[in-house]
Amino acid sequence: MCGRFAVTLPPDAMAQLFDAVPANDLPDVPNYNVCPTNDIHVVMEDAGRRLVSMRWGFLPHWYKAPNGGPLLINARAETIAEKPAFKAACRERRCLIPCTGFYEWTKDAEGNRLPWYIHPADDGPLVFAGVWQDWERDGLAYRTCAVVTCSANTAMSRIHHRMPVVLDPQDWAKWLGEEGHGAATLMQPAPEDALAFYRVGTTVNSNRASGPELIEPI
Fold first, then answer.
1. Which among 39, 132, 145, 192 counts the fewest CB atoms within 10 Å?
2. For a pLDDT cut of 70, what percent of the chain falls above it?
3. How far apart are CA 93 and CA 119, in angstroms?
4. What are the start-end ranges of the E strands in the chain?
């Protein structure tokens, strides 16, 4: 799964990277501890690419409140096309979620949670496959999203059995639906040499922690 990540790329650089028009209400960067329910940067297709803000935590239309069901921060690639929450979004509302790296945890013999920071091996930006959904009820309105995940590759399985679906630049257009069908073929583990990872301090175990020291190796 993916439950926490870091974003350091400025919005204007993101907009240039994706050839997208940026919205005016984008989240602040850098943010070294992006948590579920935070607003995050997302690239969507809407008569051209747009860089917008969305709530991380997908809200199906039948939720009666933002906390009206499980917090859906991830969508499993294996079942996304059949799950009632995601199947329409998988067909019609796919998006790109850029970041710098993400965190995952292992446990030691005493059960202590040990955080790892995972980032592109070439230190470029990391782009997750995502799906999005508008939700509105009782005067509240959110544009929400989830990260698509798949089985981990062999390298990542040392830390966790799941990983985000990572998209290369040549696949962005297909995932966004700009090149017709075939997006399902992209929901595969990243190549073994695509990502690197290292241990970081346990400060990031708190969702209130902040600052660049969160991604410093120990």
1. 192
2. 100
3. 26
4. 5-7, 21-22, 31-34, 39-45, 49-56, 74-76, 94-99, 101-107, 113-120, 126-137, 140-151, 162-164, 195-199
- Coil, helix or strand at residue 14: helix
Give percent of the chain with pLDDT exceeding 90: 97
In angstroms, the CA 176 to CA 174 distance is 5
- How are beta strands 113-120 and 126-137 bridged, if at all? unpaired
Q: Which of 78, 95, 91, 101 is nearest to 146 (CA)?
A: 95
**Are residues 96 and 129 in contact, defined by beta-carbon separation less than 8 angstroms?**
yes
Q: How would you classify the pairing of strands 31-34 and 5-7? A: antiparallel
Give the pLDDT of residue 193.
96
Residue 116: closest CA among 148, 73, 157, 76 = 157
Residue 35 Rama label (left phi>0; alpha psi -120 to 50; beta): beta
pLDDT, tens digit, for every residue of 7-22? 999 999 999 999 999 9
Give 142's contacts (C-beta < 8 A, 6+ positions apart): 55, 59, 66, 134, 135, 136
Identify whether the C-beta of residue 116 lies closer than 8 Å to the C-beta of residue 199: yes
